[in-house]
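Blinded run. Sample ID left blank on purpose so nobody reads anything into the name before looking at the predicted structure. Input follows.
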Amino acid sequence: MKILFIDLLCPSGHKDINKYLLDILNELNNIQGVDLVTKKDYLVNVSSVITNKIFIPEKYFNYKGKFDYRLKNFLKIRWLIQNIDISYYDVVLVSSYETISFSLAWRKNVTTRTLVFNHNNVDELTSMVKKFFFKNIYNNVEHIVYEEFIKDYLYSLGVSNKIWINHHPLDFSKLNIIEKHSNNEEFLVLAPSSSNDDDIIKKLIQNPKRKKLLNDKIKLIVKSENIDFKDEQLTVRSDRIAYQDYIDELYSADIITLFFNKNFRYRVSGVFFDSLVFKKKILSYSNVFTNYYLNNYPELGDEFDNINQFLNLINKYFTNQNQYKSNIFENIIGDYSKSNIKQEIINILFND
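Blinded prediction complete.
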């Protein structure tokens, strides 16, 4: 089988999962080679399964505003179709895409079997325009989603394309690159996701009970889109930290918090899965995404509906921190093991 592996958007946060998928393809029998299509220097030191690298011109990644973004993505796909003989391949894997431009540009005459990974695409379908274009992606394109509840949601909207489930991986290689160790004098509550909601963060900053409720040893570090704030207990930062710092903070944290709002529904969070790798309890603002996981694996953590509940949960975990054992993660780590995800990939590629 010859595979064309394309990342149309090349987001920095998807490098790890792309490498993970390529590593799995490298382990499979009957894969004659994978041609990789990205922007230049996006993925380096990738799997030996790669037989050829094709670089999308940089001009298609430079845009101003939403219209220009979609136009560039449309032109990017047309460039691919015009410059790559897609019929040469048995399967096209698209690891990320923009819905409207893909629906318009990936035409019916592209007959090679095409599989697209959905990230936040499904969560955007509250927009009637995006729902229209999503549902009009040609039926020879098959969707891959991360969970059954996302698949069920798409079918409830009337999507007629075939839909596969390939669970989000747990990347245990991150445990091998820890450099800094934790400060045992502090109880660190870390919220490192770029999807954190600024309105929730503002409520945390402004909460009059925060300093009184929390023990002096409790420290909070929160990633925000636009807010920077610091006092003796809470640090909120908008800058993107280095990857190594992210890994070290995950290792040092006692609790991981997800400040996702109610609109975070039919997608998944890389930070959530990294938390499982590092065996960290999770506190999350209540939403469809965490409802699903904490209903299935209630031992992983708790949800909250307001900041006072969040602060009380932190105190509970701080007081009882020695009671929580790492074996509570065994069930989900088993279910999301590399062997299971590898088998899902085999089923998708060879049992269509």
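Unblinding after everyone has recorded impressions. The chain has a mean pLDDT of 94.
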